[in-house]
Amino acid sequence: MKKSISFILILMTSLFLAACGNESGGESSDEPLKVYTHNDSEEMDAFVKQIEEGTGVELDVLRLSSGEGWSRMKSEAPNIGADMQIGMLHGFALKADEEGYLDPYKSEEWKDVPDKFKDPEGKWYGTSFWYNMLGINKDIMEDKGLDMPKSWEDLLDPQYKGEIVLPDPGTSGTAFLFTSTILQMFGEEEGWDYLEKLDENVAQYTKSGSAPAQMVAQGEYAIGITWDKAVEDFKDQGYPIEGTLPSEGVGYSLDVAWIFKNTDQPEKAEKVMDYLGSKEFMEKTAEYRSMVTKPDITENEELEKHFIDYDAKWASENRERVMEKWREDFSN
Fold this sequence. Notes:
D-Maltodextrin-Binding Protein, domain 2; 10-stranded mixed sheet; 17% strand; globular
């Protein structure tokens, strides 16, 4: 009888401790940390491997373009189906903050990262930043006798009709960065006029921000509006593609990470966030990005001269209005 009572007490104690563990964030769980990302598969695979080796935390990653990811968050809220976002447009971090999706966490690993690259309350952190770039197929330009474009204005020249490919800003963060850059740089009235004229030369709008670089590299089109690393990767593989920064300047965006408020594994998420701010992870990121936010890893003052004073807050606040007009004018 005493043995039976002891067994029951031990069982009840075990169940109680397990329940407490679940209420405190589920850290006793062997479940992987669920992550959303907009990063390309190749680079994200490398990042995941690095994070898992550096933290011991297993990640379960779902890749969605930035537009798709934001739509998914809105449809799932308040019970978003991930613990973290690793890789997303800065503007969406600001919107996610406004919607109350983010869990603040002050990480000591991020102390030396400049304030402009992180939220003061620790709601989001920027690991790197990237920018728009033109990808040019040198062979096509030569074969067809096309002039090398040097500015955004040059792309309106009729000689490029049917030779330009760019992403759809409804699904691609790269494309929305381009669209909002044009509107900020030229002003809205002149900016929309520019986009309408550019549309006359556009052969195709792609879903992915990297797709134009691939299509230009493989000889389908002469010019792609894309982002820096996509061009550089194909160039490194030996494709006849060159990158050009238009003379008026280019927009750039932080690639940010955050912890979702509804996570049931906060300690694991915080451990990963700490690692994202480490020198070790930033050095790995620098293999895939031109610039990282931690000092003394990637310094390029000459490159930064090409960046416009891009207003991510304006882009965030006006995204829905801008996208509604873009769909009306260009999606039909």
